[in-house]
Amino acid sequence: MNVRAMMTTLLMRTTTIQTTTVGTRKGTMTPSCSSSLRRGGVSFVSSLDSFESSTGNRCRGGGGRRKRRTASSSSRRIPTRRGGGRVVLSFSSTGNENSIETLTMTKPDDWHLHVRDGAKIASVVPHTAKTFDRALIMPNLQPPIRTAEEADTYRKLILDAAKTTNAKFEPHMTLYLTDETSERTVEDAAKSGFVRGFKLYPAGATTNSSFGVTDVKKVMPALRKMAELGLVLQVHGEVTHQSVDIFDREERYIEEVLKPLLEEVKDLRVVMEHITTKNAADFVSNFPESGRLAATITPQHVLLNRNALFKGGMRPHVYCLPILKREEHREAVLNAAVGPKSERFFLGTDSAPHPKGAKESACGCAGVFSAHAALSFYAMAFDSVGKLDKLEAFASHNGADFYRMPRNSGTITLKREEWEVPETYEFGGDVVVPFFAGEKIPWSTL
Ligand SMILES: [Zn+2]
Question: Which residues are known to be catalytic?
């Protein structure tokens, strides 16, 4: 990739930032889907086209306005508010409501985060840095981050954006695996000290994934080198065949790609990113080897099911990829995070901001911005099943252990104290609509 071009882009940022609220602005039609419109997406494994590359892009989805219930009363619902109604959360609660009022825990890590480029970096990084001490930064810029050298440049910009909020914040990096990734590139990554792995996007699966791998066979030498050097493979686990239903793509990926891959490269450690289905939760839980396969889980996939996409109309702010699934899948993913193999699951928000206008358009981008209240969202989900005691391991221990890094040393405290999420946050000269925009949520971080 052209580092100079990337630097030019990245340096177009402002030095100020913040999580301050700004008024909702009218969205403009945006070309931000343009990256997804790039042609050349060849389907993963077989030969089909990149369906998603013409319909959306992100690897995650939607923030949205919806309504939720308070944690202190599972049966209470806040009335639908103005503006065409909110999406009402549909999860059920069997938790020990009010049993825990504050929760002090080891500082957490976000093992799947998008911080964009240009002026947007400075807008979004402080949201994460105020709560987390580390994050694994996704490489799907346009063009993507493909070498340790490029990652170093990007990392320094992120550090700069975080320093006034949290001087201890450490961005860790993953590189974008392409058909051309060489063993030398893998060696350089391993030597860097800050690259933790490579991200495998099937071509066309999500935002800026047109550089993705067209056939896993092409990257076998790189994967073997990663296994040898202890780097981790992060996978976006969806096939992209246009003939496969969008709700079935994760399940198909496990059978068609992930199982053969884990069999073929015996020592490779893999994180199945942002899992959304019972199939994935079961596959990870039941995998016969410990410490080899893990999964990240986003807030939206344990708080919402696919009804949220169509609650009273189309809801672009809860559109994400992988897309929200049926209730039985939401329950299964949440139960896996607190279940007997819970050490294999950890926090990865996949917070993925897009400008408001890029979501509210004829080609709405996929992605949910959740960094502003990430830990609170997970607390809501874990509290809903009475498992707040499992939150610390999920947020602060399991990921560090899997990545073979020390756990963080500081602490953070969650308090059961309601606050209202702003309608928008500033976003590099534009605005982003956050997850639970305009809604009150029951957990605050101190
Ligand atoms: Zn992602």
Answer: 350
